[in-house]
């Protein structure tokens, strides 16, 4: 045995040198020290103060986060949707119902020689009365979209506002948003009217022009669908820009067009998939209820002893109630989807996640005092 193998540490204790490499051996590599949280160079996950993590969002996050908006603050979001949807539905029942009742009463008491004239006027009156709830539904959808945009923006920062707080925060921009929605509706009506007018003229010409009218009608429908999807996707961020960045209609439209460049299919795909998911859930809920109610009515009244209109009224009220609930859920989820896409695109293109993190981490924000960090959503 060599001297190197018989070597002992000073003091004669053979155990004192245990762990020290012997002659001809190599020491085991020393593992690097564990990173200290918060130290420079230490990895840390992106902060998530509220609804979403402060980083560019994945496709899956964009699909489930809109439903989290409904779950995180149901009183403010679902409550606002119920108020708006309920007001629109009530106005529809009152306006259209009263006009229809009056018109049918006049027709029942009209003499035979005036019945044709009264029927034409009655149809026109019912159609005009239906325009009132349509206009109210457009206004209500715009108001609700502005409310949900504020909720998504605040919940991303970790805030949770009440129903009154949401409306107070958004009220300064709601009428601009209503004007934008009315302009979009007017543009759609004009486009459909022009296409329908061209087809009607070709049909009136008769002969071979009727075949041309069919071809033009099919191409017009396809063209309007494609053009509508393209414009809707490019301008879908306008409500978020109007509310959060306080832009006018023109600047908001141009900025929405700019933000969606390079992300058209992603934006369209997310909105389309969320709409499909909401519609499928709605059908899953409403279809069994309708079938179950019809089966229950046949069991309760198998011989139709009750008045014939009573089951129909009950079924109509039930369908209205379910439609109100599902309509409120769909409105919240789809509006939240658009707001989340806006935040995601600004994170990807403008580094909004850094501004949001700086705002959240400010001491004044945490303590509730007036913050010196500017509003991160304003450009």
UniProtKB/TrEMBL annotation:
<protein>
    <recommendedName>
        <fullName>DUF7847 domain-containing protein</fullName>
    </recommendedName>
</protein>
<feature type="transmembrane region" description="Helical">
    <location>
        <begin position="211"/>
        <end position="232"/>
    </location>
</feature>
<feature type="transmembrane region" description="Helical">
    <location>
        <begin position="313"/>
        <end position="343"/>
    </location>
</feature>
<dbReference type="InterPro" id="IPR057169">
    <property type="entry name" value="DUF7847"/>
</dbReference>
<feature type="transmembrane region" description="Helical">
    <location>
        <begin position="174"/>
        <end position="205"/>
    </location>
</feature>
<keyword id="KW-0472">Membrane</keyword>
<feature type="transmembrane region" description="Helical">
    <location>
        <begin position="263"/>
        <end position="293"/>
    </location>
</feature>
<feature type="compositionally biased region" description="Pro residues">
    <location>
        <begin position="29"/>
        <end position="42"/>
    </location>
</feature>
<keyword id="KW-1133">Transmembrane helix</keyword>
<keyword id="KW-0812">Transmembrane</keyword>
<feature type="transmembrane region" description="Helical">
    <location>
        <begin position="82"/>
        <end position="103"/>
    </location>
</feature>
<feature type="region of interest" description="Disordered">
    <location>
        <begin position="1"/>
        <end position="42"/>
    </location>
</feature>
<feature type="transmembrane region" description="Helical">
    <location>
        <begin position="123"/>
        <end position="153"/>
    </location>
</feature>
<feature type="domain" description="DUF7847">
    <location>
        <begin position="78"/>
        <end position="335"/>
    </location>
</feature>
<dbReference type="Pfam" id="PF25231">
    <property type="entry name" value="DUF7847"/>
</dbReference>
């Amino acid at each position: 045995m060599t001297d190197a193998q018989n070597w002992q540490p000073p003091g004669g204790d053979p155990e004192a040198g245990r762990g020290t490499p012997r002659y001809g051996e190599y020491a085991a590599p020393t593992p690097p020290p564990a990173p200290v949280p918060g130290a420079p160079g230490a990895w840390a996950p992106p902060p998530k103060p509220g609804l979403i993590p402060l980083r560019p969002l994945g496709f899956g996050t964009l699909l489930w986060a809109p439903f989290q908006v409904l779950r995180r603050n149901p009183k403010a979001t679902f409550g606002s949707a119920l108020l708006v949807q309920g007001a629109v539905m009530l106005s529809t029942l009152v306006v259209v119902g009263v006009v229809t009742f009056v018109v049918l009463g006049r027709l029942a008491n009209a003499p035979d020689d005036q019945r044709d004239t009264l029927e034409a006027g009655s149809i026109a009156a019912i159609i005009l009365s239906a325009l009132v709830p349509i206009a109210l539904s457009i206004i209500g959808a715009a108001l609700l979209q502005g409310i949900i945009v504020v909720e998504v923006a605040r919940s991303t920062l970790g805030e949770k506002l009440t129903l009154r707080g949401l409306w107070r925060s958004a009220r300064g921009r709601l009428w601009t948003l209503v004007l934008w929605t009315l302009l979009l509706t007017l543009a759609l009506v004009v486009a459909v009217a022009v296409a329908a007018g061209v087809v009607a003229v070709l049909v009136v010409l008769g002969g071979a022009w009727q075949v041309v009218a069919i071809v033009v009608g099919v191409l017009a429908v396809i063209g309007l669908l494609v053009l509508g999807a393209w414009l809707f996707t490019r301008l879908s961020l306008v409500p978020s820009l109007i509310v959060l960045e306080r832009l006018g209609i023109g600047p908001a439209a141009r900025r929405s067009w700019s933000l969606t460049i390079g992300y058209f299919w992603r934006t369209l795909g997310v909105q389309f998939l969320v709409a499909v998911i909401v519609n499928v859930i709605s059908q899953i809920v409403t279809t069994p209820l309708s079938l179950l109610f019809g089966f229950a009515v046949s069991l309760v009244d198998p011989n139709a002893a009750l008045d014939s209109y009573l089951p129909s009224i009950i079924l109509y009220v039930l369908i209205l109630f379910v439609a109100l609930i599902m309509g409120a859920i769909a409105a919240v989820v789809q509006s939240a989807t658009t707001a989340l896409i806006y935040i995601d695109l600004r994170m990807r293109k403008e580094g909004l996640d850094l501004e949001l993190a700086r705002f959240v981490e400010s001491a004044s924000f945490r303590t509730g005092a007036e913050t010196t960090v500017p509003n991160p959503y304003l450009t």
